[in-house]
């Protein structure tokens, strides 16, 4: 199962590249991409999750459905990265399984019509 982290990391990096040009707020997408690029940084995703969570709470307060979809995707990516770091007190073990479904939801909110527009991984 050694290849699993590489596959999910590659999937997330591809998704960051799809969403960054389509989202108004790219700060946390760029930060996630930077953290994902280096295994030694994955533990930093816990703090990144906390920062994204604040954006989620603001989006909830403002009724921002697109923001909620974006930040739900970003939160799950941050949780997945932290869990892969092997650091103590991991997030829910099923976090990685939610990356693609939440990416698909965000893609739909951004006007992407088919899951394959979100990521070529869904064509496999």
**Order of helical and strand elements:** HHHHHH
**Sheet/helix structural class:** mainly alpha
Strand content: under 5%
Shape descriptor? globular
Count every helix, treating DSSP H or I runs of 4 or more residues as helices: 6
- What's the rounded overall pLDDT mean? 89
Rg of Cα set: 14 Å
Number of domains: 1
Roughly what percent helix? 55-70%
**Weakly predicted, low-confidence segments:** 1-5
Intertermini distance: 19 Å
The biggest sheet amounts to: none
- Topology, number of strands: 0
What does this protein structure show overall?
The chain is an all-alpha fold. The chain has one domain (4-111). Helix content is 64%, strand content 0%. The chain has helices at residues 4-19, 27-36, 45-62, 65-84, 99-109, 115-118. The protein is globular, with a radius of gyration of 14 Å. It starts with a helix and ends in a 6-residue tail after the last helix. Residues 1-5 have low confidence and may be disordered.
Keywords:
single chain; 124 residues; mainly alpha; 6 helices; 64% helix; 0% strand
């Amino acid at each position: 199962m050694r290849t699993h982290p590489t596959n999910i990391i590659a999937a997330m990096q591809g998704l960051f590249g799809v969403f960054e040009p389509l989202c108004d707020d790219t700060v946390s997408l760029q930060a996630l991409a930077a953290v994902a690029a280096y295994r030694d940084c994955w533990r930093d995703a816990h703090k990144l999750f906390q920062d994204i969570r604040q954006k989620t709470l603001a989006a909830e307060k403002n009724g921002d459905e697109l923001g909620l979809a974006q930040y739900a995707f970003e939160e799950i990516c941050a949780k997945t990265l932290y869990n892969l770091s092997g650091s103590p007190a991991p997030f829910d073990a099923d976090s990685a399984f939610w990356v693609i479904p939440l990416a698909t939801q965000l893609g739909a909110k951004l006007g992407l019509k088919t899951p394959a527009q979100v990521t070529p991984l869904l064509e496999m």
